[in-house]
Amino acid sequence: MEVKPVSVLRLRWPLSPVLVTGPSMSPTLRHGDAVLVRRGGREIRPGDVVIAVFRSRPDLLVVKRAVRPTDGGWWLHGDNDLVTDDSRAYGVADVLGRVVARYWPRPGRVPPRPL
């Protein structure tokens, strides 16, 4: 699932707004959801929803679920099993931040999911 940051430069702030596009994180996140991404804070854990860049696709900012650390980065999967635009296709990703909340259209936490 691709994401469109309000501004890539805003990802430098501790909390950044990001607009989600595409179906790969459905039903957790849907096309059009707006989320807050935290840079820094606690370390990424398996099950967290994260914003990342695949090393093989540095032009593509994505939102996925962290599965496991590998090769100094993370192996990521989408929640929608019918869409495979994740580490199965693109390999290891570098995580930029963790999704902590959805603020539009259904405000609420985006909890980690045990894998």
TrEMBL record:
Residues 19-100 form the Peptidase S24/S26A/S26B/S26C domain. Keywords: Hydrolase, Membrane. It comes from the Bacteria. This is Peptidase S24/S26A/S26B/S26C domain-containing protein. The keyword Electron transport does not apply. It is found in: Membrane. InterPro entries: LexA/Signal_pep-like_sf, Mito_IMP1_subunit, Peptidase_S24_S26A/B/C. CDD domains: Peptidase_S24_S26 (cd06462). Its main location: membrane.
